[in-house]
C-alpha cells in the first residue's frame, strides 16, 4: 500500500508543472564528471611536463625571431614576383603540380582498396585485412615515405608525386569506404527487376551514388596534399619547402619572408575554392 | 507551360552558351535537360595532368623499372629488429608527452579566441573578421616549418616541438570550435539576458553546457592528429621519435626503422581507438 502511494505521488510530480525553484533544484549535476576530466588532464600535464623542460633561448634566438618578423614584413619582392625557376611563382606552381598529380593517382589507387575493404561487398575477414593495411599506410609518416621513395626516384618533384599518391591512399580510401557502405541497395534491386545487366546496374545504380562524395573527398585531400607538399621539400622531394628551409638555415630573412607570403596566399586561395566546390557538391547544383 | 519548370534552376553563363535540350513529354509538358558539363571537366583535368607531368618530370616507367628497390626496403621494414625496442621507448614517451602538453596548451588558448571569433556571440564584425583572418594565416603555415623556426629560436629538443604543436592545435581547434559555436541554440542565452543576467553569466549558464562536449571532442580529435604529426617533428630537431627515424634512415638500418614504425603503429592505433570511443560517448 505504501509503495502505491509513492507511485501516485511520483506521477503527480511528473505531470505537475515544476516551479522555477524546483526545476533549479533538479538541474543536471555533472560536476563529478567534470572534476574527473579536469583531474585526468592535470595528471597528464603533470606527467608530460617532466620531460619537456625550457632550456632558455639559444644565443641567436632573439636574433632569429627578429629576423623572421623583419623578413615577413619586408619580403624580397624580386624573388616574390620573378619568373626564374628558383623564384616563388615557379616553385609554387611546381608544388601545385605535385599535389594535383599525387592526389589524382592516390584517388585512383584508393578505389580498389576501398571496395576491397567495404564490409557490405567483401567477406568480413578480407575487409578487415585490407583495413589493417590502410591503417598501416596511414601510420607511416609522409616524410618517411618520401625518404624511402627517394631511393627509387632520386631527389626531385617526381619523388614528391609518388610519395603523395601512396600517402593519400590511407585517408581517401577510409572516406570512400564510408560512402560505399552507405550505398542504397534498393536502387540496385529495382534496376534488377527492370532487367538491367551488371554493367547497367553499375552505370545507373552505383556510380551516380558515389561520384559526389568521391569527388568531394578528393578535393578535400588535394587541400591537405598541397600543405603537405610544401613540407616534403625539406627531404628533397621538390616544391617550395627545400628553398624555404635553406633560406631559414642560412638566415636570409627577406627570402624567408617572400616564401612564407607565397605559401600563405596559395593556401588561402586553394582553401577558398575547395570549400566552395565541396559545399556545392554537398548541397547539389 | 514552357515556364513551368524554368523557376527550378538558375540559368548560368554556361547554359546561355550551350542551350539546354528541350524534351516534349507525351502529355504536352516540356522539360529542359541541361547540357552535360562532364566533357569540359574531363578536358580540364587532362590539361592539368599533362601540365603537371611536364612540371614535375614524373615518369611511371622509372618507378616500375626501379620498384624492386622499394620492395627490398619494405621487406627489411617488415622484419623488425626486436633488439632495438628498448631504444624506442624513450623517444616515444617524449613524443607522447610533447603532443599531450602541446594539445592542452593549444586547446586552452583556442577556447577564448574561438568565442571572440564566432559571429553569434561577438557582435563586432571587425573583431570577428580580424580573428578569423589571423587564424586562417596560422593554419596555412606547415607544422614542420613552425617547428623549424621554433628549433632555431629555442634550443633543439622537446620544448620547440611542444610550442609548434600548440600553435598548430590552436589554429585547428579554434576554427572547428567557432564553427560549432555558431550552430548552438541562442534561445537560452537571450532568455537569461532578459531575466537580468549579465553577458558573462548568460554565456556561462546557457552556452558553455552546449559547447563543452563539442570542445572536448575537437580536442581529442586534434590530439589524435598531433600524435601522428609529432612523430616527424624530430626531423627538424624538435625532439621525439623523429630524431630516431632520421638517424636510422641515415644509417640505412631499415630493420630498426621497422621496429620504430611498428611501435608507432601500435600506439597510434590504440590512441585512435580510445579517442574514437570517447568521442562517440561525448556526442
In short:
Helices cover 78% and strands 0% of the residues of chain A. By secondary structure, chain A is an all-alpha fold. Chain B has helices at 13-17, 38-56, 60-65, 67-77, 85-116, 125-140, 143-153, 158-181, 187-194, 199-233, 241-250, 254-282; strands at residues 21-24, 30-33.
Describe this protein with a few key phrases.
heterodimer; A: 285 residues; mainly alpha; MetI-like fold; 13 helices; B: mainly alpha; 2 domains; two-stranded antiparallel ribbon; 12 helices; 2 strands; flat
Can you characterise this structure?
The complex is a heterodimer of chains A (285) and B (283). Chain A folds into two domains: 14-46, no CATH class; 75-283, MetI-like fold (Orthogonal Bundle), CATH 1.10.3720. In chain A, 78% of the residues lie in helices and 0% in strands. Chain A contains 13 helices and no strands. Chain A has helices spanning 2-15, 20-25, 31-48, 61-73, 77-81, 88-116, 124-139, 142-153, 157-181, 185-193, 198-232, 241-249, 253-283. In chain A, α7 packs antiparallel against α9. The model of chain A has no long low-confidence stretch (mean pLDDT 83). Chain B has helices at residues 13-17, 38-56, 60-65, 67-77, 85-116, 125-140, 143-153, 158-181, 187-194, 199-233, 241-250, 254-282, and strands at 21-24, 30-33. Chain B has a two-stranded antiparallel ribbon. In chain B, β1 and β2 form a beta hairpin. Chain B is flat. The chains are: A mainly alpha (285), B mainly alpha (283). At the A-B interface, α3, α4, α6, α7 and α8 of A face α2, α4, α5, α6 and α7 of B.
Gyration radius over CA of chain B: 27 Å
**Major sheet of chain B: order of its strands?**
1-2
Instruction: Please bin the fraction of helical residues of chain B.
Output: over 70%
CATH fold descriptor of the largest domain in chain B = MetI-like fold
- The end-to-end distance of chain A, rounded to whole angstroms, is 67 Å
CATH C-level of the largest domain in chain B: Mainly Alpha
Give the N-to-C terminal Cα separation of chain B: 50 Å
> What structural class do you assign from the helix and strand content of chain A?
mainly alpha
Quickly name the level 1 CATH class of the largest domain in chain A: Mainly Alpha
Series of secondary-structure elements of chain A, N-terminal to C-terminal: HHHHHHHHHHHHH
Helix proportion of residues of chain A, in percent? over 70%
The CATH topology label of the largest domain in chain A is MetI-like fold
Name given to the CATH architecture of the largest domain in chain A: Orthogonal Bundle
CATH superfamily grouping of the largest domain in chain A: MetI-like
What would you report as the Rg of chain A, rounded to the nearest angstrom?
28 Å
- What share of residues are in beta strands of chain B? under 5%
Report on the biggest sheet of chain A: none
Amino acid at each position: 500500500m505504501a509503495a502505491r502511494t509513492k507511485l501516485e505521488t511520483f506521477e503527480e510530480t511528473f505531470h505537475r508543472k515544476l516551479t522555477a525553484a524546483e526545476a533549479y533544484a533538479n538541474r543536471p549535476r555533472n560536476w563529478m564528471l567534470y572534476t574527473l576530466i579536469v583531474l585526468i588532464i592535470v595528471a597528464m600535464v603533470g606527467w608530460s611536463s617532466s620531460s619537456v623542460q625550457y632550456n632558455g633561448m639559444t644565443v641567436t634566438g632573439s636574433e632569429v625571431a627578429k629576423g623572421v618578423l623583419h623578413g615577413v614584413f619586408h619580403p624580397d619582392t624580386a624573388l616574390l614576383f620573378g619568373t626564374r625557376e628558383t623564384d616563388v611563382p615557379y616553385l609554387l606552381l611546381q608544388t601545385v603540380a605535385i599535389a594535383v598529380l599525387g592526389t589524382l593517382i592516390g584517388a585512383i589507387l584508393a578505389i580498389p582498396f576501398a571496395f576491397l575493404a567495404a564490409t557490405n561487398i567483401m567477406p568480413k575477414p578480407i575487409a578487415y585485412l585490407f583495413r589493417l593495411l590502410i591503417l598501416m599506410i596511414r601510420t607511416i609518416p609522409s616524410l618517411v615515405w618520401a625518404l624511402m621513395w627517394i631511393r627509387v626516384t632520386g631527389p626531385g618533384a617526381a619523388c614528391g608525386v609518388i610519395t603523395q599518391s601512396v600517402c593519400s591512399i590511407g585517408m581517401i580510401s577510409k572516406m570512400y569506404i564510408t560512402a560505399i557502405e552507405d550505398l542504397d541497395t534498393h536502387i540496385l534491386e529495382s534496376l534488377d527487376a527492370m532487367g538491367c545487366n551488371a554493367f547497367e546496374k553499375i552505370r545507373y545504380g552505383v556510380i551516380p551514388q558515389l561520384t559526389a562524395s568521391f569527388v568531394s573527398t578528393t578535393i578535400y585531400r588535394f587541400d591537405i596534399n598541397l600543405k603537405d607538399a610544401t613540407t616534403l621539400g625539406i627531404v628533397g622531394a621538390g616544391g617550395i619547402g627545400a628553398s624555404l628551409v635553406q633560406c631559414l638555415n642560412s638566415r636570409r630573412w627577406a627570402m624567408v619572408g617572400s616564401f612564407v607570403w607565397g605559401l600563405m596566399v596559395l593556401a588561402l586561395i586553394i582553401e577558398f575554392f575547395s570549400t566552395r566546390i565541396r559545399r556545392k557538391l554537398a548541397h547539389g547544383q | 507551360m514552357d515556364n513551368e519548370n524554368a523557376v527550378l534552376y538558375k540559368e548560368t553563363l554556361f547554359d546561355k552558351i550551350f542551350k539546354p535540350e528541350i524534351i516534349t513529354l507525351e502529355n504536352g509538358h516540356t522539360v529542359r535537360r541541361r547540357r552535360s558539363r562532364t566533357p569540359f571537366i574531363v578536358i580540364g583535368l587532362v590539361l592539368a595532368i599533362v601540365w603537371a607531368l611536364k612540371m614535375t618530370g614524373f615518369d611511371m616507367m622509372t618507378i616500375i623499372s626501379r620498384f624492386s628497390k622499394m620492395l627490398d626496403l619494405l621487406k627489411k621494414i617488415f622484419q623488425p629488429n626486436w633488439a632495438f625496442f628498448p631504444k624506442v621507448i624513450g623517444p616515444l614517451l617524449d613524443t607522447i608527452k610533447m603532443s599531450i602538453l602541446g594539445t592542452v596548451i593549444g586547446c586552452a588558448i583556442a577556447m577564448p579566441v574561438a568565442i571572440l571569433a564566432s559571429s553569434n556571440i561577438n557582435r563586432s564584425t571587425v573583431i570577428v573578421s580580424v580573428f578569423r583572418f589571423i587564424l586562417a594565416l596560422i593554419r596555412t603555415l606547415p607544422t614542420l616549418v613552425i617547428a623549424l623556426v621554433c628549433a632555431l629560436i629555442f634550443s633543439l629538443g622537446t620544448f620547440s616541438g611542444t610550442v609548434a604543436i600548440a600553435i598548430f592545435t590552436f589554429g585547428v581547434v579554434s576554427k572547428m570550435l567557432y564553427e560549432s559555436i555558431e550552430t548552438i541554440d541562442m534561445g537560452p542565452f537571450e532568455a537569461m539576458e532578459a531575466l537580468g543576467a549579465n553577458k558573462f553569466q548568460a554565456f556561462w549558464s546557457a552556452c558553455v553546457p552546449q559547447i563543452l562536449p563539442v570542445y572536448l571532442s575537437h580536442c581529442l580529435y586534434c590530439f589524435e592528429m598531433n600524435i601522428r604529426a609529432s612523430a616527424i617533428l624530430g626531423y627538424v630537431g624538435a625532439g621525439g621519435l623523429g630524431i630516431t627515424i632520421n638517424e636510422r634512415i641515415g644509417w640505412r638500418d631499415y630493420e630498426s626503422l621497422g621496429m620504430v614504425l611498428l611501435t608507432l603503429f601500435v600506439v597510434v592505433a590504440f590512441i585512435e581507438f580510445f579517442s574514437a570511443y570517447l568521442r562517440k560517448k561525448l556526442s
